[in-house]
Amino acid sequence: AKAQGRNRLSVFDPGLESAILAQASLLQDLRQALPRRELVLHAQPIVDETGAVRSQEILLRWAHPTRGLVSPGEFIALAEQHGLILDIGNWVLRRTCAWLAACGRDPARSAWTAAINVSVRQLRDPGFVDAVLRALAETGAPAHRLRLELTESMLLTEVDETIAKMSRLREAGVRFALDDFGTGYSSLSYLRRLPLDELKIDRSFIADVAGEGNDGVIARTIISLANSLGLSAVAEGVETAEQFEALKALGCHAFQGYHFGRPLPLADL
Ligand code: C2E
Ligand code: CA
Ligand code: CA
Ligand code: CA
């Protein structure tokens, strides 16, 4: 009876119940976010050794009418679980390509590339390659200025299909980055097979890169791994001048983080 009471307690836990209700109402609002034009794109610069901007990572935000600006960490998983990510991802892709095409008409930005985050559901969709090619063709954005960021866990299953899709897009000029590198399974054998261009070193290895601990060793190893595979290494989450200097000394050539700029609304750039 006691155990049953405990079960009952957990089922009717008011904290849990309100969390479930909050998720349900968030989902209801999320279904309306695209038609109500509440999604916005922010961009964060990726710089070279001199600090010059080379690229922008496009980061999604949701301008919720009452909750304020909602970060992707709070709604991407929900969008994936409920089949909303295809429409949202397509919107990100098309808006980014339109912006890239506009950058091409501005001499100060015509060499910039833009990186977008692709969800596993998008990559697995049979129409993915065509959706990317169509977005490029319809906006006039050059394919070589678009980068797609994938994560390791997405590349562990359906490997041959994934390689085929990546190869078709790469033949068109699209580049690929492996995001959050070092946090996943990091099987080195699959790395060689994948048609990648960049490894993005997860920011957890950058935090203490200028210190005495192991993070410097890991960052150094990832950078030399990237170099020996012919990939470029991008350091994420660079927050201080010390980290920037340490990474340059390790042979890294591309950097992203609050030290260079926070994500800003694309419309304000
Ligand atoms: P991510 O791809 O690893 O993006 C980098 C995250 O680190 C961003 O968080 C960015 O604001 C944050 N960041 C950048 N520099 C620094 C720094 O110096 N220090 C610290 N502490 N953080 C920094 P954000 O914008 O909240 O995005 C979180 C995640 O949401 C992204 O992680 C990405 O996985 C996902 N995401 C964002 N936009 C999209 C999208 O359009 N589609 C999909 N599928 N996922 C997205
Ligand atoms: Ca990313
Ligand atoms: Ca990342
Ligand atoms: Ca991440």
TrEMBL record:
Molecular-function GO terms, alphabetical: catalytic activity
Keyword Membrane: yes
Keyword list, A-Z: Membrane, Plasmid, Transmembrane, Transmembrane helix
Residues of the EAL domain: 23-269
The keyword Transmembrane helix belongs to this UniProt entry's keyword annotation: yes
Protein name as catalogued: GGDEF domain-containing protein
Organism the protein comes from: Aquabacterium olei
Residues of the full protein shown: 686 to 954 of 954
